[in-house]
Write a structure and sequence with these properties.
alpha+beta; nine-stranded antiparallel β-sheet; 3 helices; about 45% strand
Length: about 190
Amino acid sequence: MLRYKLLIALTGISSLALAQAADFPKRKPGLWEMKMESAQMPSGMTTLQCIDEATDEDMQKKAMAGDGKADCKLSSSKKTATGWEYDSVCKSEGSTITSHVVMSGDTQQAYQLVMDTRFDPPLMGNRQMRSVMKVKHLGACKPGMKPGDMSVNGMVLNTQGGGKKGGAKTPMSEEDIKKMIEELQKTK
């Protein structure tokens, strides 16, 4: 279960650190599919996310702030011929997480992130990890989904207000996170 929490955290930290680069292009509004693979999760994890400009910007800020649980800083970023390359350092759960990310592709249609991450001291038994996230725009959000909704194995949570879809607008609770992790475990 802890490995899934780690991968969820890295998904946010690694993909959304790009937002701190002043001239990084914004993602196209609509439905995005994110497929993440690593040695720690060979079967991968697929998430659907419905965004608009405001919710995507807010999610990026929250990911970098870690909702008070992680302290993240972008240490370098540069535009490359095929996309972006950046380094970030986060402190979380007593560990310093240093990531080098190479992003290639287009934030309007499809892009890929290759993330090499080191943990000092090791986090959840991991000293380092390589993960690949393939992200593509699928078009308009599915009927009934609204900006901020995230779907994992059919379970929909709203990152802006939390709670299950159609539920009360409260911050995403620890119980919601546990349920999402349980859903992720079913993909093993």
